[in-house]
Every structure is written in C-alpha cells, then in structure tokens.
From TrEMBL:
Native organism: Nyssa sinensis
Transmembrane segments: 223-243
GO cellular component, one term: plasma membrane
Keywords: ANK repeat, Membrane, Repeat, Transmembrane, Transmembrane helix
ANK repeats: 42-64
SUPFAM superfamilies: Ankyrin repeat
Top-level division of the source organism's lineage: Eukaryota
NAD keyword on record: no
Protein name: Uncharacterized protein
Length: 253
C-alpha cells in the first residue's frame, strides 16, 4: 500500500467501525483490505476506533482479516490495548488479551509503551481497573507470564508506584496491591536501591512529573481525571521529597 494512503485518514471506514456496523465493515474490508491500515489525524486506525467504542465484534473482524494491524500505534504510541484500557472497554480488553495469548508473535504487545513510557499495566492501575488487571496478571497464563510487572515509565514509576500516588480507594486498592505483589510487583525505589547496592553507589531518582501527568491526562469522556491529575502531582512531590536526597551522589560504599 502506498505510504501516502496511510496519511490520508479513513473517516469513511472508521465510522462504521466506531459505530459497530459489522456487515458494512466486512464488505469494506473485502473490497479493500488496505482500509484496515489507514489512520486519522491522531494516528488512530479503524482498530483503535473500534476499541475506543467497545465494539468487540468489529474488533474480531478487523483482527481476523488484518491481524498485523494490531501493531499499529497512534500519534502518542498507543496500541489498541492501550486505547481499550484508557476508555475502560473491558470486553475489548478481555478479547484482546485472549487473542494475544493465542499468538506468540504478537503477545509482547502487552508490554509495549506509549509516549509516556506507560504499559497497559500502568494505565489499568491508574484507572483502578481491577478486572482488567486480573486479565493481564492471572486469567491468561500465556499473557501473565509475559507481563513485565515492574516495567518503569519515563518517570521511573512501576505500576505499584502508580497505585501509591493515587487517592486511597479502600478495598479496591488493597485488592490491586495484593494482585501486583503476588505477581512480583515492586516499587521503583526498591528496584533502584537494589541495583545501586550491587554497584556500591546511591543516586537520586529523578521525579519526571510529566510522566505522571501524562498517564493521568484527562479525556473528554473522563473529565473527573482533571482533579485526579492535581492530586497525583501533589502526592508525587511528597513521594520524591521523602525518598530523595537533593543533589547528592555518593560513591564507593
């Protein structure tokens, strides 16, 4: 397919995918399979559009006919799984995890990072999506063994760190904490301290608050995250003040 065609956008094909018009989607793919790979101005493909709206049946059709489209990312490096988590479309999440678990060539998509360095695990924790986390960490052995539970985003935060800086949510927080720890989850500072102990030096961990701000960025559908961003940033400042020694690098211990 010519490169120029991928930059034209696909409003006519994206619409039936987004609205769940299954038969129209099938006919359009039959007439031109290349439509699966066209993107809009935000870099979203038809698969992203279907995931965003929770269109499971359309998602199935797109992946059956164009499985390689699962690798497409948006302008902010989000996969279709990132999008499904961000928009809290659990049925799509469930199907994608199952689909990836059956296809080793694509399975590592669960660890792919967006523009802020966040995996789907970071995003699911940031939105406290317990069922999505269970799908990733316990329900599908083919996927759970691949998930990098201690992956760090660009701010040096693991999924467990993200939970720590969010406003406390009671029982659901305890369940998520248990789930992450049973999967081997650690805080970023513990990983950094362990690595530095082995090297015999201690370094101040950077804060990179922009990474936290990015992971919690509000969407039109989730306006309440504006308040959550503010709370998260304040908590993050406290977090780093407690565990960082300003400007000190100590060598040779």
């Amino acid at each position: 397919m010519p490169e120029s065609s991928t930059k034209m956008g696909s409003p006519h094909f994206t619409y039936p995918c987004k609205e769940g018009h299954l038969e129209i989607t099938k006919k359009l793919i039959q007439s031109n399979r290349g439509l699966c790979f066209l993107k809009d101005k935000n870099g979203r493909s038809p698969l992203h559009a279907a995931a965003m709206k929770g269109r499971v049946e359309v998602t199935k059709v797109l992946l059956e006919d164009c499985p390689e489209s699962v690798k497409d990312v948006t302008a902010t490096d989000e996969t279709c799984l990132h999008i499904a988590v961000v928009y809290n479309k659990f049925e799509v999440i469930q199907y994608l995890v199952k689909w990836l678990g059956e296809r080793p060539d694509y399975a590592d998509l669960v660890n792919q990072k967006d523009l802020g360095g966040n995996t789907v695990l970071h995003l699911a924790v940031s939105r406290k999506q317990l069922q999505a986390l269970k799908e990733l960490l316990t329900c599908n052995p083919n996927i759970s063994k691949l998930v990098t539970v201690n992956a760090m985003n660009h701010g040096g935060f693991t999924a467990l760190d993200i939970l720590d800086v969010l406003p406390y949510g009671g029982k659901i927080d305890m369940e998520i904490d248990k789930l992450l720890r049973e999967a081997g989850g650690l805080r970023g500072r513990d990983i950094v301290s362990h690595d530095n102990d082995r090297r015999g030096c201690y370094h101040r961990q950077p804060s990179h608050l922009n990474s936290i701000k990015y992971i919690m960025r509000p969407r039109k559908e989730n306006a309440h995250y504006v308040l959550l961003v503010t709370a998260t940033l304040l908590a993050t400042i406290t977090y780093h003040a407690a565990f960082s020694s300003p400007g000190i690098v100590k060598e040779g211990l």
